[in-house]
Every structure is written in structure tokens, then in C-alpha cells.
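Tutorial handout. Part one gives the primary structure; part two gives the three-dimensional structure as C-alpha cells.
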Amino acid sequence: MSGRTTPATQVCCRSAPPGSGPTRRAAPTTGSLSRQAGVAVRHDDAMAHIALFHSVLGLRPAELRAAERLCRAGHDVVTPDLFGGETADTLDQGFELVDRVGWGAVVKRARQALRGMPDETVLGGFSMGAGVVADLWPERQAAVGVLLLHATADLPASVRPGCRVQLHAAEPDEFTPPERVAALCRAAQERSVDLEVFRYPGVGHFYTDRDLPDHDPAAAELTWRRVLNFLDQGLADH
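Part two.
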């Protein structure tokens, strides 16, 4: 799959072997980082506001560590608990948990977590969380960017031209099949969305989670470097 460039759109669909890619100079940090139940927040001098929605396994240390890393770079991050404190050990248990909680309740909790946050807040989702992002995206047209981690999502019909989107996924991955990625690339091209797609060959679905067998340290580190670069570029352009 190759990328194509138009005056308004850059669609980059490319494989990303671990160990390659841009590096990022760390931003200076000041002030304190606080953690609450389901939330990791940096309170002062925030560069971007970000909402990270967890996977079907529930809110786990993986999401909180990701939030902490973004906070240390100067961003303000919330990680809503969409399952009311419950977590799952396997995907099957996670799907049962979603059924028990109800998708409507999951999205309602996510929407409530965004109340009071700026319209420009970046929306990010881990696996199932990408589906949450997809449901909230039409309501958050001013979002500086959208981060899709471990799963893809359809562009809303009302997506803002020039919106910046980044997708990170294993390759192969049953939750991010090639045909869905190709459809996302075509839709981004047609709607002038600035999309980057990074595939990580040979890693597991939850490769960023060091507590799971899928974890791949090199691919995870590269992903977060690219995410931080994405946030820096988005803020510079905003």
C-alpha cells in the first residue's frame, strides 16, 4: 500500500519495522503530575488536551502508563473508566463485559468524561476505544487530532477537512484487516483528511501493553515517539 499526496491531504499508508522512524526531543516539564481513579492529569502548562479511551479489557495500567508518558511531555490527559471499575483478563471476557455494561452506557460515560474539556481535545482509543472515538467524533469536529491504537475506525460523514488522524496497528491483525485500512485511506483521500497509517509487522494485537504476551518493546517505543511527534505537529499547525 503506498501513500499519495494532494495539496490538502497527506495519506501515508506504510509498514513500519521496529527500530526506524523519527526521534523526538523531550519537552521541558514543570509542575506536578496527579493521578486519580481512572484519570492521569497534568494540570499546568499543558500543550494539548487528550482523552484516551481504554480497550475491551477495561482501564488497566497500560492506559495509565500511556497517559503518564504524555503528561510528562506536557500534555493534559484523561483516561475515563468506561466499565465502572471492572476489567477483563481475556478478549472473550472483555466482550462479555461490554455486553453486560451495554455499548450505550460505555459511550455515555465517554461523553460525560469530555464535558468541560476543550472542543479541540484530541480523541484517542485503544482497540475498542477506537470504536468509542468513532461514536464521539461527529460531536467533536474541532478536535486537533484523532489517535487510533490497535484498531481502525470509519471517518464520520461530517469529518472536518484537514483533520489529522494517526493509526497504529499490528500487521497482520484481525481487528485491523487490510481491506478496512485501504477503505480508510480512500475515505481520507476523498475527504481531505490528513491520515498516517503505521503497521508493525509480526507483533501482537496489544503490542504496546507490557503486561500482555503481545508486547513488543521496540514497536511500542516507536509508536509513542510517533504519537508525541503527531501531537507536536498538530499543535504547531493549530
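Part three, for discussion. Residues 217-237 form the longest helix (21 residues). Residues 1-37, 39-44 have pLDDT under 50 and may be disordered.
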